[in-house]
Amino acid sequence: MVRLSITVLTSPLLPTPAPAVRLRSRPLIRLRLRALAAGAASSLSPSARSLRLLEWGKVCDAVASFAGTAHGRDATKKQLWEVEDVSYEQSQRLLQETEVAVWLLDNAGGAMDFSGLDTIAIESAIHCVSGGAVIKGLEAVAVASLMLFVESLQVNIKAARKLDEGSHSRLTTLTETILEVVINKSLVKSIQDIVDDDGSVKDTASPELRRHRERVQLLESRLYQLMDKLMRNANNEDSLSEVCIVNGRCCIRTTGDKSSTFDGLLLSSGSDAGSMIEPIAAVPLNDELQESRALVAKAELDVLSKLTDKILLELDSIQSLLQETIKLDKVTARAKYSIAYDGTFPDLYLPNFENETVTSATGGSAKGTSSAQPPKKAWKLYMPNAYHPLLLQQHQENLDRAKRDVASATAEIRRRRIYGQDIAEDQLASDLSSMKLRVSQLEKDQPVPVDFMIAEETTVLVITGPNTGGKTISLKTVGLASLMAKIDFLIADYS
User: Fold this and answer.
1) In degrees, to the nearest 5, what angle opens at C-alpha 87 toward C-alphas 85 and 90?
2) Is 461 helix (H, G, I), strand (E, B) or coil?
3) 452-483: per-residue pLDDT in tens?
4) What is the pLDDT of residues 28-46, one digit of tens each?
5) 347 close to 355: Cβ distance less than 8 angstroms
6) Among 10, 55, 157, 169, which residue has the fewest nearby CB atoms (within 10 Å)?
């Protein structure tokens, strides 16, 4: 493999060195901390130090933020940090996946939104059911949401595939497994019939559950009527009383110097909180209420236990759905990041050149077929108008923030005009003008791109220029672009 050596030199036109200045010694603790930091950095491998120097972690975080699920974000970061172990063949496959994901976002965009899935709850449900425990209501809802999402995704992918007959072979690389999965609609219906959207078990889940819940409601109503009657009969102006619940038992809290006028059990007392009294007349009702609540809990457990048995039969399918969904979310995150920053598909080439012909990642000869490969000219590196991804991201975030400020100020001025609150309207109008000016300035002040075009026979490249002239940023742009191309998401390149 041909290696390229890059040397960075500063401009010879440097200012005259300043006279020496004697500095006070820093505290010993700072020296120790700096030594520890230097020791930790030196313990890293050369490749790890390179990734750290390039701030690859920030790029990984930025890409992962486009994933819709927690597991998708973790999987995206894990894959990006393993960029060193990616082979040329794997890069080819990853590039095809990203290309398919971009196509799906263009043709079935709404179906590729994974943010409504709770993969943590789904994983918890899988562990719970496989371990012999009873599934929780919210976990069952998450499982049903996954199955419904995959069913909707299958419909949208098939519909998008009909729009482009030639897309069938491309989609196979990414969607073949998930399209072959058969969704158990009866299981989804069982979950929906038993569990509500908030995870609570429905009254209609079983006759026993409905009967016990109705009994609980009746007892609670009787208790509140009894408490209201006792408090009205007391009618003590020197004390205040209210109904409260202590350990699931209905009681009366009284505050004041005089004792209560009804018999009861003192559950607790204090100078600030008052006295918690359970009236003697309420004890039987409270006991019966506790028993009815226990019967409700048992009926809910029985219903969820039967539902767990049904989910257990489909556990392998649910695990497969979760894995494929996380994979799709991971690939879609790369595609969404690429689209958000107007990226360009990279052309990857094997390092061995023969007869001015190289093999590209898309298959076949790249000679005369790519914009990155001029006729009869083999480039070692061809990157016109390449942007540093972190600078581009920072600029886009600042621009989005400025636009949101303009929208908020405009809405506030409109609101004040509607309600006649024009006291500070002049100041707001002035602020709005400055906000709009900032948006206009940010739209003009785009990050400066860099052009890299290095011929095949070049083995040494010397970069020279003044301090803060962009040498380091240029090198980091090349380094990050090579990593991004290797892991295969689109490069910020406006060529």
Assistant:
1) 110
2) strand
3) 888 878 888 888 888 877 888 888 999 998 89
4) 455 555 555 555 555 677 7
5) no
6) 169
